[in-house]
Amino acid sequence: MIEVRQLTKRYGDKTVVDNLSFTAKAGEVTGFLGPNGAGKSTTMRMVVGLDSPTDGSVTVNGHTYARHSAPLHEVGALLEAKSVHPGRTALNHLMALAYTHGIARSRVDEVIELAGLTSVAGKRVGAFSLGMGQRLGIAAALLGDPSIVMLDEPVNGLDPEGVLWVRNLLRQLADEGRAVMLSSHLMSETAQIADHLVIIGRGRLLADTTVDDFTRDAGSGAVKVATADTAKLRSLLVGPDVTITSSSAEELMVRGRDAREIGAIAAEHGVALYELTPQAASLESAFMDLTRDSVEYQSAPAGAARKAA
Ligand SMILES: Nc1ncnc2c1ncn2[C@@H]1O[C@H](COP(=O)(O)OP(=O)(O)OP(=O)(O)O)[C@@H](O)[C@H]1O
């Protein structure tokens, strides 16, 4: 488990991480989200002692990172996929890491296979694509069989097959009881992997929630209903705060009543439904709404440039 408590980091007069508290629990995938420059990497660097907090604390399995005698067994981290000597082969890179912790060669072979790097293990890392570099970084993070896995933008540069691989791997690691934390600035991608979301902007906590709750709250509140008797259903559903629109002869879009209510009313009056679907709003737009005020590098709306010209 990673416990972040009132964590603050300042560089000069700039506060990059601001009184941040959250917990990444065992058995869960925690998605750590925020726009560019929000302070995600800085927070992750403090988790593994590469930066020291100006204030507050962060512990892994109850102790600060530096207090662990064999930290690779506690936290496996991927922070900067390209921070590997380019002249070394993937195998040599992992062997060098393994030596520092007395990890057996058999474990190196295991993580090479797990990361899908068997055919390129003898190649120099300098010739690796971004995606292969990410896979090597993940292999290194798993080398010590750690109870915490923390990955900074792990799907960056991966092709769809690679993204699916990371998604399945992280789920498997959490199901084995590990605490998994990954950072991203992509809400919809993270929602497919994570259970728990920690969203920050300008170093501050904006939301600490579950994917299910975030998705529900992001919902548009509309329910799509399909039936052969739209006229009858419409008359049954009307009410003071209910709006009903129709896009085809057999479909209604209902706002102001939830799916359970609509289903119950239809059943009570013998109206057969073919479809009853709550409409999800775009997670990405809910994320953008939440972080709008904390985006550091905001692009002008598409129309603005034209108007100015
Ligand atoms: N060593 C440093 N000295 C001064 N400022 C820094 C330093 N490291 C990071 N920053 C600043 O801290 C802010 C947060 O950076 P950080 O890399 O943690 O954000 P991030 O959320 O990981 O962003 P991204 O998604 O772009 O990687 C940025 O404004 C960055 O310029």
Brief account:
By secondary structure, this protein is α/β, with parallel strands linked by helices. The protein has helices at 40-47, 71-74, 90-100, 105-114, 130-142, 160-175, 187-193, 211-218, 230-237, 259-268, 283-291, 302-308; strands at 2-11, 14-24, 29-33, 55-60, 75-78, 148-152, 179-184, 196-201, 204-210, 222-227, 243-248, 251-255, 273-278. The longest helix has 16 residues, at 160-175.
Can you offer a commentary on this structure?
The protein is α/β, with parallel strands linked by helices and 309 residues long. Helices cover 36% and strands 27% of the residues. It has a six-stranded mixed β-sheet with strand order 5-6-7-3-8-9, sandwiched between helices. A four-stranded antiparallel β-sheet has the order 11-12-10-13, covered by helices on one side. A hairpin with a 2-residue loop joins strand 11 and strand 12. The chain is elongated and about 75 Å long. The structure holds adenosine-5'-triphosphate.
